[in-house]
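Hi V.,

You were right to ask for the full record rather than a summary. Here it is.
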Amino acid sequence: MSDISSQQLEKQLRQLLNSFPGEEIDARLTSISLELTGQSFPAMPDIDSSCFYWARPQQQHAVLTSGEVIRLVEKGVERFEHIQKQFDQLQHSWRHIGAHHPEDPLAFFCYAFDADESMTGWWSGLPNSCVIVPQLLLNYSCGRCFVTFTVDSESLRSETLIDQWMLAFTELMHAVHVPADRCAAASLQRSKVFPQDDRWIARVGQAVTDIRRSDLKKVVLSRRIRVEGATDFSAARLMARLIQRYPGCTLFAVRVDGVTLVAATPEQLVSLHRGELKCDAMAGTLAAGATLDERMLQYEHLPVVHTIAQILAPLCEQLDIPEQPQLLQLHGLQHIWTPIQARVKSGISLLELVAALHPTPAVSGAPDHVAREWLMQNDDQQRGWYCGGFGWMNSVGEGHASVMLRCVLLQGNTAELFAGAGITAYSDPHSEFRETELKLQTILDLL
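Predicted structure:
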């Protein structure tokens, strides 16, 4: 488990819980944090309860949660503003005890691509957008690990509170240290595709035609496929393989309301740390070893860079954008990538930046309002959280947000995968189809 024993942990929790003045008990939330010595990089466990797993293996950072204390849910064009207001109110009545640092993760969020989408199909039951404060959180960063227990005011006086926390902690740590089954499904069979291949290729052709004769410059079309395995799929097994294959990506898994989703995205929408912003402008995908396509650079990548720069300029005091993009190498493919850095103006929060940046032309199109209108008229895909985003926030409203890409929904022996491609005036429908197949294959290989 870790060098600290369960008895020591329980003793420290009781001491900290009993140490605060009684008049502070009116706090809506109370969090107690302790350091766990000897804890290794936490794995993604297979558990039935609500949980989040977020990892950047190359940076030796992982966050794992279990249970829920509070869930903030919103939908509509002002969803981020409403959630931010609720979270601000929560922060004002949130007491932190023990080894808490203001920059430590405290809450996770997920949001759909479309602010007005009613979640249907496999997304049924999930909120359009939500922020969840977990009951138990492990935060591992560069060799140090902290555990945070959070409780609402109604449960704070419970005589069994510590016992409940210890039971949740023991169960989670046991699950973390159970090795993921390395056995793979004997075979995979595609049971459905949405839309049919020929229909999707025709839709790309229609998009190219419309782009050439209208104000539309780029539109992103998505596909999804359903596969069945000989045995049930394991989120823990898949995550273990993703950590080995894609250590430079942001890896994410969530189990909410019985739905399990796993994602491996190379694209960080935005991070905010002590006022310093980082943002990935990423558009244009090439096979491994292929050389940079100048038309892809001009018509697919640079519009994303220019759009992000226009959005961030009024929110930042300084903006640093490299003149030349890089090729981000991943297993089997590479992306055209421009890393952007900035210093944000005082008072700007992570969710404000997310609201301003989402959706980038990399997942929607350009100009955004024209691309959205085209998608409403010509695309019948329900994206759900795909091409939306996920991330975490700390107590000062900073944190990380990533675009929900390379994601798969798991249910028993069935998996649903998603992929998309940016269509421009020079796109070839069959080449775009092969690009989506290449993206889908990154997850299929691991399933």
